[in-house]
Amino acid sequence: MKIxxxxxxxxxxxxxxxxxxxxxxxxxxxxxxxHDVSVVLPLYRSxxxxxxxxxPSHGGFQVALGDKKVTAEFLSTQxxxxxxxxxxxxxxxxxxxxxYSGNDRAYEDNAERxxxxxxxxxxxxxxxxxxxxxxxxxxxxxALIPVFVKDQxxxxxxxxxxHDLEFQGSFWSFDFALTNLPGGYFTPRxxxxxxxxxxxxxxxxxxxxxxxxxxPALYEAFTQSGGYGLNLVLxxxxxxxxxxxxxxxxxxxxPPFERLSGRKIKTExxxxxxxxxxxxxxxxxxxxxxxxxxxxxxxxxxxxxxLDNVIPVFDRLLTSNLRFVLLGSPDDAAIPNLLLTERKxxxxxxxxxxxxxxxxxxxxxxxxxxxxxxSLGPRCIAAITxxxxxxxxxxxxxxxxxxxxxxxxxxxxxxxxxxxxxxHPEAVWDTLQxxxxxxxxxxxxxxLQEGCRAADFSWTASGRAYAQLYANLLRHRQAISx
Length: 482
Fold this sequence. Notes:
CATH class of the largest domain: Alpha Beta
CATH architecture of the largest domain: 3-Layer(aba) Sandwich
CATH topology of the largest domain: Rossmann fold
Strand order of the largest sheet: 3-4-5-2-1-8-9-13-14
Number of strands: 20
Number of helices: 18
Low-confidence stretches: none
Radius of gyration: 25 Å
Largest sheet: 9 strands, mixed
């Protein structure tokens, strides 16, 4: 397949965070799978000053923005990974100190800048040879591309990846005139959202497929709190929404046991996990016989009710054969209970308020269990990291959870975690009793740990999932054409 990635960031040419690195890694994986992948992004000042070899490509072009015509040109380069990169040059828009903002303020003409970029990408797509099949857009700066493709009835399929739903590209209604689209597009069924032009909403409505970073994130986006206002729009277009987890680099997320524990380890098996466990308990000054279980609970920012189902059973948890490690800062309402628990169970409960990265890594590697009483986090990184170390996740059932954690079946000897299905403290307690029961049966416990380690959330797996998505889109179009 011939695929064009449209993005406002692409590492290392121009990147402000995870977006640029995610697009780069996905392009590499798709190329390894044999697909013809290229990337297009604006020619920022940072690229021009970065000593990248840039050459003219596909000539100049004009873009209509309302009543005016804007002239620009295409240039090209190649990433160190061999990915062809097209650059859209218009110094008026992109020769600036930042990508989206300068002096801590968003550029006032961001709507015009990225509308121009979206139209330029559509122009480039029509010039590429051999013919393009898929335009994969990333986040709000490219979300109008599917709208323009549909309006012009171009023969490209479009996919839109939403990396961060909070940022939507919302601008005042007068900017709609710059699209040169018929007025019928500025409606509740189009790009209009509460009287404003919303780039991301346009992409959701008109893209052939909309991709979230995993099914848990997708189902969270259907809620009022997780949808950032677009939850009803997403529900109305749910037939075209999919969840594909962003891949992780296990060499980064899962350092060897030896590096974490600081001890020489002969193997990377249970000896390494035991060494990390002992290093964790020593650092946190907890005592724990070998027969006890160590459970870690990593908190995520914004989880206001994360401990509601845990605090009521703290006494039972901490008087059983369990040691509990809490990472991060909870809601203020939970702090008095945690301070009391900390004093009451000095050698059984540890609370790392600062959430030290080394303690977190050591906890996820050395603990027996990792508890997620609320959210798995936006990218489920803690769960994915822990599972690769053989640390068994305990999680509350929610939409999309099965893509990450499959409840263990001791009869079929299949699964990658323990799931509870009632939103109640007793459900947490009952699930912990299941963990104790399994721990007393080494064959089942080892099988569960192996199921955790076998779960594959690498970028290779993500690349295959995206390639399958593209193939499905193409088959669907062929079926409609027939």
